[in-house]
Amino acid sequence: MTALSQEEILQSTRTVVQGLEALKEEHESIKGTLVNSIQGLSADESALIEEKALIVEKNLDMLRLGIEEAQVMMALAGHLQTVEAEKQKLKAQVRRLCQENAWLRDELNSTQQKLQSSGQANNRSSIRMSHAVTSRVFDLCEDLLSWFVQVAQLEEEKKHLEYINSIKKYDSDQQESERTMEQSDSRSNDHTLQDLGFGPEEDEEISAYRVLVEEWDGMIDRISSVVLLKCYCSLPPEIGVME
């Protein structure tokens, strides 16, 4: 005997219910006929009719019970079908959610890889930038050293001119002292400017040296300002960012 499917069972149950409904109507008709035929009969015949009516009533109760059970089975089958449909719907949703979850995982992994690659690229760029800044700082240090050497040379020249100026001042004081001594020994002239190797033609040169000293003082101040300004302007923008 082959197993019946759920749909075949439901179809058979509907057929049985229809048959039971027909039997029920037939028994109700028989019962009505028996009840109507009791009138005008003798006591024995009435008792026999009542007994038949009781049997018919009992059969009606069994038919009603069978019909109700069949209806319950059909309702239960319909409910099971609804539950099964909902179950299949939930399974489809679960599959869709699993697919979306797998897609989101792939997207997350791809995003993480991109972030890691971007971080590595940024690190390499930062290293290159740091090397460039370091090289630029070294170049600036070399420029500063060169400027400082020039400033030191100017300072030495300034000191030399100041020394010459002091000699000139000493010679001038000596000449003033000699003018007050009109009859002093002619050998005192050995300490004059001419005896030290400076003739009248050197006066203009020493005056020019004084002017140069003043100009070089201003030049040294300007060079210092220019050096600082050049160092600040030559710094690459990356240094300000790193700070």
UniProtKB/TrEMBL annotation:
Domain of life: Eukaryota
Keywords of the record: Coiled coil, Cytoplasm, Repeat, TPR repeat
Subcellular location(s) of the protein: Cytoplasm
GO cellular component term of the entry, any: cytoplasm
Record GO terms (molecular function): kinesin binding
Record InterPro entries: Kinesin_light
Region named Disordered: 172-199
Biased composition regions of type Basic and acidic residues, renumbered to the chain: 172-193
Ranges in coiled-coil conformation: 73-107
A biological process term (GO) from this entry: microtubule-based movement
PANTHER family recorded: KINESIN LIGHT CHAIN (PTHR45783)
Name of the protein in its database record: Dystrophin
